[in-house]
Amino acid sequence: MKKVLWLLVFLGLVGFSLAQPRSVKVGFVSTLSGGGAALGIDARDGFNLAVRLLNNQLGGLPVEVLIADDQQNPDVARQAVDRMLKRDRVDFLTGIIFSNILLAVGEAIFEEKVFYISLNAGPSEYAGERCSPYFFNAAWQNDNLHEAMGQYVQTRRFENVFLLAPNYPAGRDALTGFKRFYRGRVVAEVYHRLNQLDFSAEIAQIRAARPRAVYAFEPGAMGVNFIKQYAEAGLMREIPLFLPGFSADADVIRAVGRALVGVYNSSQWALELNNPVNQRFVEEFRKAYGRTPTLYASQGYDTALMLDAAIRAVGGDLSKKDELRKAFLAGFNSTRGPLKFNPNGYPIQNYYLRQVIQAPNGEIVNRLVGTIFTNHSDAYVSQCKLR
Amino acid sequence: MPPSLFLEQMLNGLQFGLMLFLLAAGLTLVFGIMDMINLAHGSLYMIGAYLTATLVGLTGVFWLAVVLAVLGTALIGMLLEVSILRQLYRRDHLSQVLATFALILILNEGVRLIWGSQPLLLSAPEGLSGPVEILPGLFYSAFRLTIIAVGLAVAVLLLLLVNHTRAGMWLRAGASNREMAQAMGVPIKPLFTLLFGVGAALCAVAGAFLGPILAVQVGMGESILILAFVVIVIGGIGSIKGALVGALLVGIVDTAGRAFLPLLLGQVASPEVASNLGPALASILIYLLMAVVLFFKPQGLFPART
Question: Which of A93, A349, A371, B265 could bond to A27 as cystine, CB 3.0-4.6 Å?
Answer without folding.
Answer: A93
